[in-house]
């Protein structure tokens, strides 16, 4: 009911995102070549039938690496949204529903955190925790909490005075039950698009962090990491940067279009 | 059964009391009408009885006795046990009183879910029965519908079904017919009368519509500016009003033949 299935942008977005997800999933179990296998004689091969996206400076198959990289990026973005979304929803639900002093205090902290770019917050975490896939997830997840909390809070504050909430209370439903069984489903029209936008931001943030060298560390591969690696060989092997960049663009485009379709259908 | 003694309500942000010492008794199986203009304190009284009055925002004093227990002395958890079980409420706007993303069935069952340990199947049976009790013809279909797929009159019936599913002793009806058109109004009134007769449930019917009250209620209390200015049997109040305010209210009823 809330997803306008006829929305063209949702369909196209879903198709693109599905291809990306399929690439990632297949990449977990099978790649055409070993993504880490170094073949000295096959450096910088242009795209061909043997190597769809060509090979890189170590002679590794870029297509295989992209498949694995998309998987890592997908995984990081999903986990980030999961952490940020869950904790943010909990905080937003309680502050929005109850209001009062706790709400004021938490939201001012929230405002202060929002003043910093997500990447900067994540940087602080990485500085404390060190590099690696899981630390990136934790850092981004925490950095994403405020934005979700804000969206959810606004919705809960709007809904808590509505009549259906009063009805539920008059039937004896507890506050927790009202919050999560009655109000939460009503917020999905706003929260789902927010999650999708969050997913995109997480993809970009991961790419930026890996690009800056503070994200995923070898032997893990991510799209951002590949992008940063490829720019040194932009002239020599333009397909490297093009193919990697294109996949990031497609991933974000697909998910954005899904979000757009959801948002339009949900309103 | 319901006895209100010297109830006072003052909102913290107001400089006068919204309810200024009312006494009201609703006997078992009785339909009591509470009439008065907007702002006379009817709805505030209903909020206090139903337990919706936010204690942070208002001072409430007096007693609201339901079967001898003072509702005002109960804590939130004890009050919750009575909400939807001993006391149910039907609102004015059925459209907004229903959760837009929940199907009708689960909403009708809500009180059972909260108060009983019945199985899914038993709850469903009871909900379908309640929907039939309020004359919703195709209960199975209604059970699966979303609120936006139903008309206002049907929704109000579904709300009443949700209110009576736990067989409450007292049904608080706050202007339940105001948002409906006249033919549907008449049907809803007939339904309330029948439920009152068949289930022996007391009804406190709050309205500013005197015609409706006259048709439905056995007892009437008239509120003005937070006080009850007149109370008695419907017949007595309508044919022999004592208070000036009641006389003016009755004179203001639009009708073809003058009553008094």
List the helices and strands and how they pair.
The complex is a heterodimer of chains A (267) and B (260).
Chain A: H1 8-29, H2 62-98, H3 100-114, H4 118-129, H5 133-159, H6 163-170, H7 175-183, H8 188-211, H9 223-230, H10 238-266
Chain B: E1 2-11, E2 19-26, E3 31-35, H1 42-50, E4 58-66, E5 69-70, H2 76-82, E6 87-90, H3 94-97, H4 104-115, H5 120-133, H6 139-144, H7 152-164, E7 170-174, H8 182-199, E8 202-207, H9 210-216, E9 219-224, E10 227-233, H10 234-239, H11 244-251
Parallel strand pairs in B: 3-8, 3-9, 6-7, 7-8
Antiparallel strand pairs in B: 1-2, 1-4, 4-5, 9-10
Helix pairs in contact in B: 4-5, 4-7, 5-7
Short description:
The complex is a heterodimer of chains A (267) and B (260). Chain A has 267 residues and is an all-alpha fold.
Helix content of chain B: 40-55%
Q: Give the CATH topology of the domain at 75-240 in chain A.
A: MetI-like fold
How helix-rich are the residues of chain A, as a percent range?
Answer: over 70%
Oligomer: heterodimer
Widest beta sheet: strand line-up of chain B: 6-7-8-3-9-10
Name the CATH superfamily assignment of the domain at 75-240 in chain A. MetI-like
Radius of gyration over C-alpha positions of chain B, nearest whole angstrom: 18 Å
**Number of contiguous helices of chain A:** 10
**Roughly what fraction of the amino acids of chain A lie in strands?**
under 5%
The shape of chain A, in one word, is elongated
Task: Name the poorly predicted regions of chain B.
Answer: none
The sequence of SSEs of chain A as H and E is HHHHHHHHHH
Describe what this molecule looks like in 3D:
Chain A has a domain at 75-240: MetI-like (MetI-like fold), CATH 1.10.3720. Chain A contains 10 helices and no strands. Chain A has helices spanning 8-29, 62-98, 100-114, 118-129, 133-159, 163-170, 175-183, 188-211, 223-230, 238-266. The longest helix of chain A is centred in the N-terminal third of the chain and has 37 residues, at 62-98. Chain A is elongated, with a radius of gyration of 21 Å. Chain B has 11 helices and 10 strands. In chain B, α4 packs across α5 and α4 packs parallel to α7. The longest helix of chain B is centred in the C-terminal third of the chain and has 18 residues, at 182-199. In chain B, 40% of the residues lie in helices and 24% in strands. Chain B is globular, with a radius of gyration of 18 Å. Classes of the chains: A mainly alpha (267), B alpha/beta (260). The A-B interface holds A 1-2, 162-164, 166-174, 177, 182, 185-186, 188 and B 50-52, 80-85, 87-89, 91, 93, 96-102, 110-111, 114-115, 146, 159, 162.
């Amino acid at each position: 009911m809330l997803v306008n299935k006829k929305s063209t942008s949702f369909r196209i977005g879903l198709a693109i995102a599905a291809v990306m997800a399929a690439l990632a999933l297949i990449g977990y179990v099978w790649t055409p070549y070993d993504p880490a296998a170094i073949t000295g004689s096959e450096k910088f091969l242009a795209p061909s039938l043997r190597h769809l996206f060509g090979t890189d400076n170590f002679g590794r198959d870029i297509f295989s690496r992209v498949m694995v990289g998309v998987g890592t990026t997908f995984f990081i973005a999903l986990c980030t949204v999961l952490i940020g979304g869950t904790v943010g929803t909990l905080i937003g639900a309680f502050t929005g529903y109850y209001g009062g002093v706790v709400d004021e205090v938490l939201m001012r902290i929230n405002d202060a955190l929002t003043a910093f770019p997500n990447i900067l917050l994540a940087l602080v975490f990485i500085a404390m925790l060190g590099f690696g896939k899981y630390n990136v997830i934790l850092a981004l997840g925490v950095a994403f909490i405020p934005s979700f909390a804000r969206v959810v809070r606004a919705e809960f504050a709007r809904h808590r005075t509505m009549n259906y909430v009063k009805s539920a209370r008059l039937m004896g439903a507890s506050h927790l039950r009202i919050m999560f069984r009655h109000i939460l489903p009503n917020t999905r029209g706003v929260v789902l698009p927010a999650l999708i936008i969050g997913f995109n931001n997480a993809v970009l943030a991961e790419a930026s962090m890996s690009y800056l060298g503070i994200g995923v560390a070898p032997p893990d591969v991510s799209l951002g990491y590949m992008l940063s690696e490829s720019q040194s060989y932009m002239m020599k092997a333009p397909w490297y940067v093009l193919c990697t960049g294109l996949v990031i663009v497609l991933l974000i485009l697909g998910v954005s279009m899904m979000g757009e379709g959801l948002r339009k259908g949900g309103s | 059964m319901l006895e209100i003694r010297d109830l006072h309500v003052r909102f913290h942000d107001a400089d006068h009391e919204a309810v200024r010492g009312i006494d009201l008794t609703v006997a078992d199986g009785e339909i009591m009408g509470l009439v008065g203009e907007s702002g006379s304190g009817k709805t505030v009284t209903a909020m206090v009885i139903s337990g919706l009055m936010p204690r942070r925002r208002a001072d409430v004093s007096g007693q609201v006795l339901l079967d001898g227990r003072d509702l005002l002395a109960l804590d939130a958890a004890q009050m919750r046990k009575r909400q939807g079980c001993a006391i149910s409420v039907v609102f004015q706007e059925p459209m907004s009183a229903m959760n837009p993303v929940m199907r009708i069935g689960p909403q009708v069952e809500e009180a059972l879910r909260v108060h009983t340990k019945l199985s899914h199947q038993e709850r469903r049976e009871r909900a379908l029965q309640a929907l039939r009790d309020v004359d919703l013809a195709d209960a199975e279909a209604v059970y699966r519908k979303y609120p936006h797929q139903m008309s206002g009159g049907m929704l109000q019936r579904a709300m009443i079904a949700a209110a009576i599913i736990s067989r409450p002793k007292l049904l608080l009806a706050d202007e339940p017919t105001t948002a409906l058109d006249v033919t549907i109004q008449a049907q809803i009134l007939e339904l309330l009368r029948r439920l009152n007769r068949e289930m022996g449930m007391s009804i406190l019917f709050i309205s500013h519509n005197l015609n409706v009250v006259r048709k439905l209620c056995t007892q009437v209390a008239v509120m003005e500016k937070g006080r009850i200015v007149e109370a008695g049997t419907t017949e007595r109040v309508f044919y022999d009003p004592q208070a000036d305010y009641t006389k003016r209210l009755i004179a203001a009823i639009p009708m073809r033949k003058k009553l008094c």
